[in-house]
Amino acid sequence: MTARVNNPLRGFSFKRGCANINVLYLTVSMKRPKETEGFGAFGQKAAIPPTILTIFGATGNLAADYLLPALLHMDSRDMLPKDFLLVCVGRRDLNAKSYLDFILEKSEAIQGKITPAQKKRFLGKLIYYRGDFADPASFKGLSKLLEDQDQPKHLCRNRLYYFATSPQFFADIARILKENGLLTACGRHERKIRILVEKPFVFNLKSAQALNRLLLKFFNEDQIYRIDHYMGKETVQNLMVVRFANRLFEPLWNKDFVDHVEISVLEDERVGSRANFYDQAGALRDFVQNHILQMLALIAMDEPYNLTADLIRDEKVRILKALRPYDAKSITGNIVRGQYLGYAAEIGKASQTETFVALKAFVNLPRWEGVPFYLRTGKALKEKVTEISVHFKELPRCLFRNCASNILTFRIQPDESVHLRINNKIPGVGITLHQGDLDFSYGEAFKDNIPPAYERLLLDFMEGDQRLFIRSDEIEAAWKFVDSITDNWNEKNAPLRSYKHGSAGPKEADEMIKKDIREWWTK
């Protein structure tokens, strides 16, 4: 495999099976991507039972851009369960064929990529149902429709419901399911009922608690799958494997050896079609509250006793609850807000919404005492990239000149990969050091065998595996930290800074980290 630019190190040899990677006599375990039906996020599973997946909001952007492309691709690779049925619910007056044509025309992800044979095969698994939340009576026939699909085959399929709508409709959907008998068993054996809800998980702690109370009125916690699609990315899942399957790293994973951690989620696009939602949310609520804090929790958590869903999530919650809250005084100099030039014209009004935020967080636990976590995200920046970098402390004494600290980088997107920066000798007379990377690239190791995040999460949803999904107390702990910022920042302690489209963001973000004698690793 090729190394990063200016890196003289080469020669990963990859062994299938146990996923061992030999690099200069260094063997590191990595997570192998899920390839086929029956493989969950962390190992072999039983075959998925017969399933009916019902998507509410099936004509929206989420369904067109992510869910249907994922399901079409899964069907083409025989990854869907036996006797699988997809019921797509929307307000438009369509049938299965016209609905699929609508999706194929709307979705850039699959335009021109589906053959007539694949389309015909998928149509055999697809039903379109017209329903309007403003007219609850329009859903009275949905229960009979599902029963009529089961009875001829004497099936009692699991019923999974995907809430691919904004949270304002979650209560309506839950009531529709309850009042129309869509949550009942079939009498022959236990039928699994599950729901999947998408972010945004509302607006603040108070509304998050209200949403959790609402959902728990109709469903048990083990029936609720709250999705953060970043958790489906291979390198995010690989965080736990690298940490807990390699003795090399975990003994160093603490305040004695780690200088700081950086998590950067940078996007080059403007807000675009999400302008209405984004102006209400902003960068902090849109990305920090979910994606970034989830990655922080995986980086900082202790090793769980085993890989059951609740034990993993217990450790994540412990980290999120330990985040040091902000007050009006501590915000000064530790948080930078920014907005790209032209944002107000783009949304058609003056706005104080941040399109960029950088902040310094601390985890108030003995393992991480005094270690800063630098978090950064923004729109309209020069590059689309997501990276987590763990910066180890410099040697207290180095025999050579110019010893640099070691850096372990997880690149989430693009080009999912892991890089370990080390010091090496440049060939020749004398000893001159060179900093180079030991690289592992998922794309090179597995070629085209890396499923998109939504495919992985949909399979886990069908399998009943909650390990990559978010529990109610995780959401509330994350919102409590975010609320400590939004309740206290203002134009005095965190003024809104301007930055140009295509830049690295406000210069004040660089100044914030430079005053700690550090710099952003992800440029």
Q: Which structural traits does this protein have?
A:
6-stranded parallel β-sheet; Dihydrodipicolinate Reductase, domain 2; alpha/beta; single chain; 523 residues; globular
The count of domains is 2
Query: Rough shape?
Result: globular
Report how far apart the termini are.
24 Å
**Strand order in the sheet with the most strands:** 19-18-17-16-12-15-14-13-20
- Indicate the percent of residues in helices: 25-40%
CATH C-level class of the largest domain is Alpha Beta
Which ranges are low-confidence, i.e. pLDDT below 50, for 5 or more consecutive residues?
1-25, 35-40
CATH architecture of the largest domain: 2-Layer Sandwich
Beta-strand content: 15-25%
Helix-strand layout with pairing:
Blueprint (H helix, E strand, L loop, with lengths): L12 E3 L4 E4 L2 E4 L9 E2 L2 E2 L6 E6 L4 H16 L8 E6 L5 H11 L9 H8 L2 E5 L11 H9 L7 E6 L6 H10 L13 E6 L6 H14 L5 E4 L6 H11 L13 E9 L8 H26 L8 H13 L6 H4 L3 E6 L2 H5 L8 E6 L11 E6 L6 E8 L14 E7 L3 E9 L7 E9 H5 L6 H11 L8 H15 L9 E4 L7 H8 L9
Parallel strand pairs: 6-7, 6-9, 7-8, 9-10, 10-11, 12-15, 13-20
Antiparallel strand pairs: 1-2, 2-3, 4-5, 12-16, 13-14, 14-15, 16-17, 17-18, 18-19
